[in-house]
Amino acid sequence: MSADASAESAAEQGPTSAAEPIAPEDRYEVVVIGGGPAGLQAALILARQLRRVLVLDSNRPRHSATLEAHGFLSRDNIPPNELRAAGRESVEQYETAEIQFAQVTRVQRDGTGFIVEASGVRGSRARRVAAERVILATGLKEHFPDLPMLRAFYGTHIHSCVVCDAWGKRDSRLAVFGVPEAKTLAYRAAQLARIGSHVTLFASEEQVPEVDAQRLRELGVEIDRRELEDAVGEKATLTGMRVVGGDVVPVDAAFVLPSFEAQLSYLDEDIRPDLTDEGFVAADNFGRTRIQNLYATGELTAPGPEVLIISAGKGARTAIAAHRDATGF
Q1: CB-based contacts of 194: which residues, under 8 Å, 6+ apart?
Q2: What is the pLDDT of residues 252-306, one digit of tens each?
Q3: How far apart are CA 268 and CA 45, in angstroms?
Q4: Is the separation of the CB atoms in 117 and 277 below 8 Å?
C-alpha cells in the first residue's frame, strides 16, 4: 500500500484505541492546538529552545474570507493564507518542530500531561499523541447579526476590525453596526469619524445611550436607531444598508461587531478552563489557565480579537512561560 493510501486509511479509521500505548515518536513536550499567528509563533519560540513541539491545525481560520492582513510589520497587506504559510515554513525549519493539518477531537488528562486525539484533514493521518503541556491557540468563532447578505460582502466591503481595515476605506461612506449585545459601537464610530467621508451608526439606545450618541453627532456621525434588515449591493459591490421598512441608506463599506465564542468542547470536562464574563478563556498575562500545564493564547484570551501582530506576540509570551515552567524554575 502506498504512503498516501496508508494515510487515507488511517484518517478514515480515526484515532487508535485509548488502550494502545503511545509510541516514543508520538510523545511531545508541547502540543499547540491551532496554527494561526499565535500558535505558530509559540511553536517557533519553543522549537528554538529545543522543545519537541507539534502543531495541530484544522486549517479553518476565522479570517478565511479576508483578502489581506494589515498592520503586521514587514508583512503589511499580505493575504492571510500566505502569512500562515510563511509562518509554517519558519517553524518547520527546526528539527524538533512538526506541523500537521488535523482536527483535534479530544484532549484528556494523563497524569500531569495530556492525551490529544485528532482526525486527519486534507489527506493527513489521524493522530493520538501524548503531550507534557498543551497550548490552546484555536481563536474564536464569530456570530454575526442575522442579515442574509452579510457574508456575501464580508472580507471585501464589510469588515470586523477597524484598526486593520479602516485605512483602505478612507473617504468612503461608512456604516457601523453590531450584534444586539455589542458594547463598543460608539468607540468604533468615533474611530471611523476621522476616516470616512460620512459615518452612519446603526444602534439601539441600549447599545449606544443617548448621551454617547450626542457626542458622536458632534463628531459628524449620523445616528440611525432603526433596525437593520440586510446589506444590499450590485455586482458584488456593497451599495447600502436596508432598514426594516425598506429604506436603504447608501454606504460604500461597513464595519460589524460580532459576538465571539471560544470552542472548547474537545476538552474533557475536568480540564476545561474557566471563562471570563465575556466568554474568553481565563488566563494570567502569560497564558496560564487554572489547569496545570494547560495554556491559552491569542484571541482566546482577553480582550479577545486584536490585530494579528498582537496575537503573535501573545503566542511568543505564552511559549516563553511554558518553557520556563518546564524548567522547574
Answers
A1: none
A2: 999 999 999 999 999 999 999 999 999 999 999 999 999 999 999 999 999 998 8
A3: 28
A4: no
For the chain, list the domains and their CATH numbers: 3-140+262-327 (3.50.50.60), 143-258 (3.50.50.60)
Q: What is the mean pLDDT of residues 242-252?
A: 98
Identify whether the C-beta of residue 29 lies closer than 8 Å to the C-beta of residue 132.
Answer: yes
What residue has cell string 502540543?
31
Look at residue 59 and give its three-state secondary structure: coil
Do residues 164 and 192 lie in contact, with contact meaning Cβ atoms separated by under 8 Å?
no
**Spatial contact of 94 and 51, defined as CB atoms under 8 Å apart:** no
Entry pTM? 0.89
| Share of the chain residues as helix, strand and coil, in percent rounded to the nearest 5 | 30, 30, 40
Q: What per-residue string of b and e applies to 255-281 under the rule 16 or more CB within 10 Å gives b?
A: bbbbbbebebebbeeebbbeeeeeebb
- pLDDT by residue (tens digit) across 140-198? 999 999 999 999 999 999 999 999 999 999 999 999 999 999 999 999 999 999 999 99
The distance from CA 237 to its chain's CA centroid, rounded to whole angstroms, is 26
Element of type H or E holding 191:
helix 185-193
Mean pLDDT of 231-240: 94
201 contacts 223 by C-beta, under 8 angstroms: yes
* Cell numbers found for residue 302: 482577553
The rounded distance, in Å, linking the Cα atoms of 15 and 275 is 29
What confidence score (pLDDT) does residue 74 get?
87
Set of cell numbers at residue 98: 512538526
- The answer to whether 126 and 118 have CB atoms below 8 angstroms apart is yes
What is 264-320 written as a DSSP string?
Answer: -TTB-GGGPPPB-TTSPBP--TT-B-SSTTEEE-GGGBTT----HHHHHHHHHHHHH
